[in-house]
Design brief:
About 30% of the residues lie in helices and about 25% in strands. The chain is α/β, with parallel strands linked by helices. It has a five-stranded mixed sheet with strand order 1-7-6-4-5, with helices on both faces. Strands 8-14-13-11-12 form a five-stranded mixed sheet, with helices on both faces. It has a two-stranded antiparallel sheet with strand order 2-3. Bound molecules: oxa(dethia)-CoA.
């Protein structure tokens, strides 16, 4: 490349100290599906699902329900919680891997439904790591000055992409949405989103995929090599979480609340145990939202946060460790401070 010689420097937006959390919200379909109900049509039982995955019930949307409506419900609640007017949101990021079609994206339609006029709007597909990827990007957008306030939503309608006769997936995945609003931190002391620790393992891409031989409402169906992913998650995710803590300049003992992706309660407990071996406190509160929400992929972390706030297990001033992982395989985590 040849350089044309000196030119006027490009002007950048003024940077700020960092991003902080302004609001939180979530939405789930009303319809509850219990393990016993699933056992009527699939060869499974309540005890197996509770013991091997930790799920007691999950929420499943109506066939004609739209993912973008679920996303908009969660987003509207988060914007209301932030105290901002929708007009003050400059960018909307929707983390999702279950839109019915690749085009159009979810974010622009979701913003329209919330009443946010003409924001930057794009989707992130990092599957179950999507919310943490979106949050990482949003925090850097705020910090770099390319957006003032950003709405990040994790929204999934996995029921559309399941083969309801496949017991290895139908008992695990569910529908839901969760959202967070970020804004600028006035100074370093009020920064509420730490640096993201992220990465991927493309050599394991085929372990979670849409399998054309399986049939969902929309075509092929979600398939996962459960044991391979289980082994990967229980060995590779604690180091990512520890890296996120280190990047934030903290130690595991500083973490009040741990909210990993809700893939399987046994994975959640295994990773929490490893963090405790590295100094995390015994009284660190660990999300177990999978019990009544199922595995909602990119929605699971913000859903768990919102539910933990509602039941008093997430409080103002808490230092919270997030880590998402899943198809790609992709993973991401960061430490946030709850306002
Ligand atoms: O969210 C994205 C990331 N995903 C994950 O992190 C998922 C990671 N993997 C897992 O959570 C677990 O591997 C699963 C929950 C998917 C499966 O649990 P598992 O303990 O690995 O079960 P398995 O596939 O090894 O199956 C154990 C046994 C088998 O029977 P045999 O061969 O031992 O007789 C299965 O046929 O359990 C049987 N089985 C079931 N039984 C009743 C498998 N699925 C079911 C079922 N109900 N739904």
């Amino acid at each position: 490349m040849t350089h044309p010689g000196p030119a006027t420097a490009l002007r950048l937006a003024p940077a700020v100290a960092g991003a902080r959390i302004l609001g939180l919200g979530s939405a789930q379909p009303e319809h509850v599906v219990t393990n016993d109900e699933l056992a009527r049509t699939i060869e499974t039982n309540d005890q197996w699902i509770r013991e091997r995955v930790g799920i007691q019930s999950r929420r499943v949307a109506a066939e004609d329900a739209l993912l973008v409506d679920l996303a908009a419900d969660a987003g509207t609640r988060a914007v209301k919680d932030s105290g901002l007017d929708p007009a003050e949101i400059g960018a909307v990021i929707v983390a999702t891997c279950t839109m019915p079609n690749a085009i159009p994206n979810a974010a622009a339609q979701t913003a329209e439904r919330i009443g946010i006029h003409a924001p930057a709007a794009f989707d992130v597909n990092a599957a179950c790591a999507g919310f943490c990827y979106g949050l990482g990007a949003a925090a850097d957008m705020v910090r770099g000055g390319s957006a003032g306030n950003v709405l990040v939503i994790g929204a999934e309608k996995l029921s559309d992409w399941l083969d309801w006769t496949d017991r290895s997936t139908a008992i695990i995945f569910a529908d839901g949405a969760g959202a967070m609003v970020l804004g600028a931190a006035a100074d370093e002391a009020s920064v509420g989103v730490g640096p993201v620790a992220w990465g991927s393992a493309g050599d394991m891409a085929q372990t979670i995929r849409i399998e054309e031989a399986n049939r969902s409402r929309l075509g092929g169906a979600l398939h996962q090599e459960g044991q391979a992913v289980f082994r990967w998650a229980t060995t590779q995710i604690a180091p990512v979480a520890l890296r996120a803590i280190e990047l934030a300049g903290l130690t595991p003992a500083d973490i009040d609340v741990f909210v990993p992706h809700q893939a399987n309660l046994r994975i959640v407990e295994a990773v929490a145990k490893k963090l405790r071996k590295h100094g995390a406190r015994d009284d660190m509160r660990v999300a177990d939202d999978i019990v009544h929400s199922g595995n909602t992929s990119s929605a699971s972390i913000p859903l768990a946060l919102d539910h933990m706030r509602a039941d008093g297990r997430l409080r103002s001033g808490d230092t919270v460790l997030l880590v998402g992982f899943g198809a790609g395989l992709s993973y991401a985590g960061q430490v946030v401070r709850f306002p």
